[in-house]
Design brief:
Elements: E1 5-11, E2 15-21, E3 27-34, E4 46-47, H1 49-68, E5 75-82, E6 88-90, E7 100-101, H2 110-120, H3 122-129, H4 138-148, H5 150-155, E8 158-160, H6 162-171, E9 175-177, H7 178-181, E10 188-189, E11 194-195, E12 210-212, E13 217-220, H8 223-229, E14 236-238, E15 241-242, H9 243-250, E16 258-263, E17 267-273, E18 283-286, E19 293-299, H10 303-313, H11 315-324, H12 328-335, E20 347-349, E21 367-369, H13 377-401, E22 408-412, H14 419-429, E23 433-436, H15 442-453, H16 460-464, E24 469-473, H17 477-482, H18 484-503
Parallel strand pairs: 1-5, 5-15, 9-12, 16-22
Antiparallel strand pairs: 1-2, 2-3, 4-7, 6-8, 10-11, 13-14, 16-17, 17-19, 18-19, 20-21, 23-24
Protein name: Sugar (Pentulose/hexulose) kinase
Domain Carbohydrate kinase FGGY N-terminal: 5-249
Pfam family, one: FGGY_N
Length: 505
């Protein structure tokens, strides 16, 4: 019998990645391609599903086959993930009817959220779903389409998220994993682990995908998909999931007390627990497998904030990096290496696209506080990194407050390559942070989940034994104490300015 391989492809906010993994859980080929996120209006975030999601998937699949020389017939399974939850209306032929409305960084449905809270009751929604209704919800965006684009709403055959779209393109089957479905507040029933029986305000039941567990095999690559992707027809395909949960799996975040801290375009956290736990500041729902649960959290800006800084205040650095082949973010971090903890009195609220948890305020605004004539752009850059760190620490304090014992924090994502940033987070929080040897992220997790789905691995514990730690970032507790007044200032600044933020939104 020939050797088996497992393919995983992930679609991110600004980049898509793929990995081909062998039987020893080693990556033998990978490929990535950048893309853009469109923001046609302030607070809007969109992707072209066909030209970005599917085109990237096809490009990556074909490139990996070419690079590896592996026969498509030897690829035993395929898994995928995307940013989530997104809202994409499609017609009966799976043609997108508009660009996909992205996850919580798209805050257009503020009025719909307010309406639903008034209709059902804010607390009642939380009690039923275990998660507050926020800009993260795709259900509120269905209602936005109904209210603002009635002609598109009338033509919609299904409302789907990113992973559903890719799996449907591959197999013709419409599925969504429980982890992602639980974020469609308020229409997912956490007790039944299925959609609500009454969806009449939003859509018809048949307009939603079927809920499955992440690693379940739901279909096979069709002849049409085979021609477009290069994969063999008949290749098993899993349900798929959100990028964050796939990334968590990729670094062995499975047991209660395990936590993933994802440094991507945004910050995302998953804390695994052994029972359903609710907190109105956070999100809760099923995890990847039956009888597992996740407390999740997400900040709207991380990599998007450093990208904003680069594009607006460090164009010379970006140009030099482009000419030399160096990394612009590494160069900016090097320029700021001597800026002390606290950025000499500068504090940034990283709410440049509203904020998700823990304040759940789509009208929040970014703030640079404490500027004086001594400060340089390097101070501002450092304060941006620290501002994200203060926000992360705010979540850690909530976990501690709720007695959710954190045994292991695994950091993932492109931001982990910024040594200054990850050390700042460790120092701000006083927590030890680990990274894994394989840092491919969600695409690697997708491949491993697909291997689990076809039974190559008997259970997740067997698989995660292959995941090894690369390094541990320990906090400097003296610097932790230095950050004390800045942590407090971060909390106070939002409380002091939120009424002004809302007044001028």
């Amino acid at each position: 019998m020939s050797k088996q391989y497992f393919l995983g492809i992930d679609i991110g906010t600004y980049e898509s990645k793929g990995a081909l993994v062998d039987e020893e859980a080693q990556i033998i080929a990978s490929h990535s391609c950048p893309h853009t996120m469109e923001s046609p209006k302030p607070g809007y975030a969109e992707h072209d599903a066909e030209k970005t999601w599917w085109a990237d998937f096809c490009e990556i699949s074909k490139a990996i086959l070419a690079k590896s020389g592996v026969s498509p017939r030897d690829i035993a399974s395929v898994g995928c993930s995307t940013i989530a939850p997104c809202c994409l209306p499609v017609d009966k032929d799976l043609n997108p009817l508009r660009k996909a409305i992205l996850y919580g960084i798209d805050v257009r449905a503020v009025e719909e959220i307010s309406y639903l809270e008034g209709l059902y009751g804010k607390h009642q929604i939380f009690e039923k779903c275990g998660t507050p209704l926020t800009s993260q919800s795709a259900a509120a965006k269905i209602l936005w389409i109904k209210n603002h684009e009635p002609e598109i709403y009338a033509r919609t055959d299904k409302f789907i998220t990113g992973s559903t779209y890719l799996v449907a393109k591959l197999t013709g089957k419409f599925t969504i994993d429980h982890y992602t479905a639980a974020t469609w507040v308020p229409i997912y029933d956490i007790e039944k682990k299925d959609w609500d029986s009454d969806l009449s305000l939003f859509c018809r039941r048949e307009q939603l995908a079927d809920c499955k567990w992440t690693h379940e095999i739901v279909g096979e690559v069709t002849e049409k998909a085979s021609r477009e992707t290069g994969l063999a027809a008949g290749t098993p395909v899993t349900t798929g999931t959100a990028d964050a949960s796939a990334e968590a799996f990729s670094v062995g975040v499975l047991d209660p007390g395990d936590m993933m801290l994802m440094f991507g375009s945004s910050i995302f956290m998953i804390h695994v627990v052994d029972h359903f736990t609710k907190d109105e500041r956070l999100w809760a729902g099923p995890y990847l497998f039956p009888n597992t649960y996740a407390i999740a959290a997400g900040m709207s800006c991380a990599g998007t904030l450093t990208r904003w800084f680069r594009d607006n205040f460090a164009r010379d650095v970006a140009a030099e990096a482009n000419a030399s082949g160096e990394n612009a973010y590494a160069m900016m971090a090097a320029l700021a290496k001597d800026i002390p903890a606290g950025s000499e009195g500068l504090v940034v609220l990283p709410y440049f696209s509203g904020e998700r948890t823990p304040i759940n305020d789509p009208l929040a605004k970014g703030l640079i506080f404490g500027l004086n004539l001594h400060h340089t752009r390097e101070h501002v850059y450092n304060a941006c990194l620290e501002g994200v760190g203060y926000g992360i620490n705010q979540h850690f304090e909530i976990f501690d407050e709720r007695n959710m014992r954190t045994k292991k924090i695994m950091a993932v994502g492109g931001g982990t390559k910024n040594e200054k940033w990850i050390q700042a987070v460790a120092n701000i929080s006083g927590k030890t942070i680990h990274t894994a040897v394989v840092e491919m992220g969600a695409a690697y997790g997708d491949a491993l989940l697909s291997a689990l789905g076809i039974g190559f691995y008997q259970n997740s514990e067997e698989l995660t034994k292959k995941i090894q730690l690369k390094r541990s970032i320990f906090p400097d507790m003296a610097v932790y104490q230095t950050y004390a007044p800045y942590r407090e200032q971060y909390y106070l600044l939002y409380q002091a300015t939120k009424d002004i933020m809302h007044r001028y939104s």
